[in-house]
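hey all, quick one before standup. I had two proteins in the batch that finished overnight and I want to keep them in one place so we stop losing track of which output belongs to which input. First protein below, input sequence then structure tokens straight from the run.
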Amino acid sequence: MKISSGIFYYVYITTNPGKTVLYTGITNDLRRRISEHYKERGNTNHFASKYHCHKLLYFEIYDAAREAIAREKEIKNMARERKLELIKTKNTKMNFLII
């Protein structure tokens, strides 16, 4: 039997306001991380910041960090069209999610 640590890990996909760029990341505090992306927008040292990827489109929740990391890598290796299909399985209209 697997016992949860009470900590959850989120694999998420954000985009910029024009929905032209997708960014996949992982965190244990989704609300904080999305806020950080917003505050860091325009910073050219980081991909998500450089391209203003602070609008949440999709997320998955995991109990184990290893599983979340593996899933993040899997999503990052997907072609853009496949990522869009994945997002649309839970967010058919590609609306920005509020958490």
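OK second protein, same deal, sequence then tokens:
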Amino acid sequence: MSLPSHVDVVIVGGGVMGTATAFHLAEAGISVLLCEKNELASGSTSKAAGGVRANFSDEFNVALGARSLELFTNFSRRPGYEIDLHRSGYLFALTNQQDVDLFEKSTKIHHQFNVESRMLTPNEAGKISPLLNTKDLIAASFTPNDGHCTPEAVVLGYAGAAKKLGATVLTNTEVSAINLDSGEITSVTTTAGQVRTSAVINCAGVWSPHIAAMVGLDLPVKPYKRELVITQALDETFSDLPPKMPMTIDYSTSLYWHREGKGLLMGFSDKSVEPGFDLKRDPKFLEKLGAIAMVRAPRLMEVGIGKGWAGLYEVTPDHNAILGEFNKVSRFFYATGFSGHGFLQGPAIGEILRDLYLNKQPFVKIDKLSADRFNTSGQLRPEYNIV
């Protein structure tokens, strides 16, 4: 594809946020150019564990998760692509009373959004997730309609459909400048040339602060490395595992696992990692993972390790997204800082960014997610159900 001379909107970033937004805008008849500096889904999206859920503590995230689950469920029809969606549920294992209290409150919020959610006893949790050591569990939170799918497929599905609708999707094309005149966007300079436009949507993930700085906006997003591994195929000693074993998370340590092909995908969030863009794998990661697994899921130690990789979380001070339109530059939008739950919220964010551009009220209020909340006068709204 060649660079168009003029488009209504330039989207920066070719992950789930950017491609979902491109699809929804193109579907609405808006001319779109999406610029990705590498390959589609080559950033955080392709490194995600693929979990999709509505199990959150913040009403906004519950609403986003629930809506995205609807869109994931219908993905094979709209936009029309197979994403290998498994609705096996999400199970948070809880080992202290403070966390139980938190998830009991979250369950009430889930019900307000018609999300099926319930608290389980340790025995009930162990039956649906047999690898789980339940001896010191107090309770568990279970949302049976959550699950996981393939991140790269979601991106390719959205991008392909957007192109069929007339959008231009350019890979290996970096945005180097956003050009302004009296506070209004006039054009965008890329490594492929310059394109005239009056609107830019920043979906660049951990690189979004760099794009935002081009228009004088400070986004408090920091990159944190997270690692995961996929095991070798499970043998007959694991025949007791149910086909629909849920994504299981030990809330106190963030150890998680779910079925992936013939094996398991598992990992945890190493809180000792300092922020940075280094994706070099930690030689002690498996040792750390094993120490946690020995306590919470000892049978994981019996499975051979296959491949693994590291990716980046785009983390904000309150672990909640930064979403909105910059009030000092006309038609500059941002969607970033999803702190580990961006992939699963991408479809709904695509709809919201479309509506913001069209000056329509999105299906959920987003005013409290503005970057302004990090100013001295703003109010943080922390998300607690994080992995």
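Flagging for whoever picks this up: The CA atoms of residues 37 and 174 lie 4 Å apart. Residues 9-48+152-221+318-374 form a domain with the FAD/NAD(P)-binding domain fold (CATH 3.50.50.60).
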